[in-house]
Amino acid sequence: MLYQLLGYIILRLRYPNTEEHKKILEEKYQGLYSDVALQPILKIVGFVFIIALTAMLIGVIYAAFTNDRAVL
Question: Out of 31, 33, 48, 62, which residue is the most buried by the measure of CB atoms under 10 Å away?
Fold first, then answer.
């Protein structure tokens, strides 16, 4: 329910014209307002996940080169 409301608001802000709004909803999002809301949320989650993985990889490489003990 929250995703549907958020999706409706996002689509209304992007496309204030009612005809264009309905056309985009049907063509791009298969008529589901929840898909409209989930797309930006999943993009943000994916971006945070990639940043976290990159930070962990840099930390492991840094620890491998600065630690006197053999890591591998």
Answer: 33
